[in-house]
Design goal:
Blueprint: H1 2-27, E1 45-51, H2 56-60, H3 62-72, E2 74-80, H4 83-88, E3 96-98, H5 102-112, E4 117-131, H6 132-140, E5 144-147, E6 150-154, H7 155-162, H8 191-204, H9 215-229, H10 236-246, E7 251-255, H11 256-265, H12 268-277, E8 278-284, E9 288-295, H13 298-308, H14 321-328, H15 371-382
Parallel strand pairs: 1-2, 1-3, 6-8
Antiparallel strand pairs: 3-9, 4-7, 4-8, 4-9, 5-6
Helix pairs in contact: 8-9, 9-15
Length: about 375
Amino acid sequence: MGDSRATLAGLGLLLLAGVVVFVAVVANPFGGGSSNGDTPDRPPITVTGRLGSEKQDFMRDPEVQRILREDYGITVDFTTLGSIEQVRSNTTGQDFLWPSNEVALQIYKDSHGGSVKFSTIFNSPIVLYSWANVADALMSKGIVDKQGDVYYADLSKLVPFITTEHQWSELGLNDLYGRVSVTSTDPTVSNSGNIFAALLANMLAGGKVAQQSDLATVLPVLRSYYNSLGFLEQGSGDLFKKFTRTGGIPIIVGYESQILELMQQVPESQRQDVATRLRIVYPRPTVWASHPIIAVTDNGERLMNALSGRDPPSNPDDAGKLLDIAWQSHGFRSGLSGGGSLPSTTPGAVTPFGLQGIPNDIAAVMPLPNSSVLDAITEALKQ
């Protein structure tokens, strides 16, 4: 009798073990999925898309790639392309587009019709980058002023100055060649160039948002100005690298995020040299470059939801980390809800990047013209 009881008990344990194994397999059929983002709702996928060059270092960040892979089962295969080209080009084979402003999003909506799934992940103001001697020379003309540690450019003074063929020699900068100008990316293909052209149009329209009725006056000035600049880079990242590596361009248009990202990447021993030589100048007014990711397919929507935080990570320890990385390592402001996404609120505080002159708040922000006016500006600058 004792042997039969032992046998029954052993059989019961085996059956119980079988039930446990069965439950485990049903609950997690992919085996080990919690560490790789693999669940019935998150099978591993590769998501293909296009994004602005200013975001490529964020997407190449090993920690970003780890979180997307392990928590969401997502690997991203991307190419860089200017924002305007992204939304005007054929999207066959693309799961997502990630341009750098909401005007590009509107162009996409207008051309594709119906409901468009999107989420604005990052924000970064348009700024000017210059060198210490150039900024000082512009300060002597009252075009740039310094408030605390922050440099500001008065566009109501700067725009007339750069569109009326003043020479660098007039500012005592005899080593610089030719007319005073602000170099942007190609406004017909790149977001930062397109936004700056729109900002110029606003100022040429009397400091108000440019309307269709202003174009007859504004467009000839814009065409003349951009023709004088010659060859223009097609990507914001390419222009910024050229600016910082050659030192031969007096002023460029860029995103605030670019200098913050650079300060994170350069060796600590070189940060003081960069901070001493380079100036970040905030235009007044400026415009926000919002970065809406557009989901073209369901896979693109999975990436969008992961980046925006709509879909929580499988590892709770990674919650909010993508937005933290965006600010702390790449300088993208993502709003008050994205912990660590804004600089310290202490007046005059140094940013985590060891760089003075980054304001806590971006004021004097101007709306962009509507998409039909921007289309007219873009077409005119192609001629």
